[in-house]
Amino acid sequence: MSTSIASLPLWSATVAGLALLLSIDLILTRRPHEVRMREALAWSAFYLALPLAFCAGLWAAFGTTVAVEFLTGYVVEKSLSVDNLFVFMLVLAAFAVPAELTRRVLLYGIIGALLLRVVFIMLGAAALRSGTWAFLLFGAILLVTAAKVMKDALTGHEREIDVCSLPAIRLVRRFVPVARDYRGSKLVVREDGARALTPLALAAVAIFAVDIVFAVDSVPAVYGVTQDPFLVFATNAFALLGLRALYFVLEGALTKLCHLNHGLSLILAFIGIKLILHWAHGIWPGVPEIPTLASLGVIVAVLAVVTLTSLYANRR
């Protein structure tokens, strides 16, 4: 496993910047309102410019290799997060979240998801330090996931989720009373003389719970691009930060990307093979490895092709 580029000041500055952005978001969403397309596009542009500026800073400070690893990992994480938006839509519909509260509940869910990713990233780093077998394990996880995603795509299996069956939701309902209706952006209210969670709180818990499934494939996928925990954290953080704005931009267009899952399965399989080749190269040096720059080219090409084929299929 390669050593991390991150020093304590770099970690501190990154975490502080992330906390500042989340704090600003919490302040801006105190007054619930329905997000219009113009606002969503502005936020999407901002959250796209942010990782690009970060990548430029990495290039200036650490060179081309580190910058390409970050950019490739970010593209992988962003492409996987687009598919996550489908499930977020189902969760929000299941809880009948009012349009003006959508941004708030996504923010709560994503803060929880980000904390969860930190745990997965630390576990992944520990696994990689323990031996090269972790590359083989991560590769196998991605290949199995890719096969499942492709099977669902070929059979036309609909994305569905039974919110009530989520263990986190069952656990919350078992021990904590739940209010009968939404109370603005409040998570906890007093009802019948006792404290109760609002449906908004349950929706946030559901977003957090389903992200556990997403983290199982997205974190190993980024580790397939770079073994630096700092870069893995940064790619996850930037992808999650821009996820809410992207939700409102793509809300209507997502259903038209009919071939998205085909492309994602190919990307997961490709990175899985890359990890297995990396493991094999450590044992048999004659086994070739896939360069990071080539990985970036393959991933961008796959996404471009599935977008074009989806548009063509919709025209027909």
List keywords for this structure.
two-stranded antiparallel sheet, 11 helices, 316 residues, 2 strands, single chain
What does this structure look like?
- This protein is mainly alpha-helical and 316 residues long.
- Helix content is 74%, strand content 3%.
- A two-stranded antiparallel sheet has the order 1-2.
- Strand 1 (188-191) and strand 2 (194-197) form a beta hairpin.
- Helix 6 runs antiparallel to helix 7 (199-223).
- The radius of gyration is 20 Å and the shape is globular.
- The chain starts with 7 loop residues before the first helix and ends with a helix.
Low-confidence stretches: none
Counting DSSP H or I runs of 4 or more residues, the number of helices is 11
Strand fraction: under 5%
What's the story with the biggest beta sheet?
A: 2 strands, antiparallel
* Helix percent band: over 70%
Task: Please give the structural blueprint.
Blueprint: H1 8-28, H2 37-62, H3 64-94, H4 102-130, H5 133-155, H6 167-175, E1 188-191, E2 194-197, H7 199-223, H8 229-241, H9 243-250, H10 260-283, H11 292-315
Antiparallel strand pairs: 1-2
Helix pairs in contact: 1-8, 2-3, 2-9, 3-7, 3-8, 3-10, 3-11, 4-7, 4-8, 5-7, 5-10, 6-7, 10-11
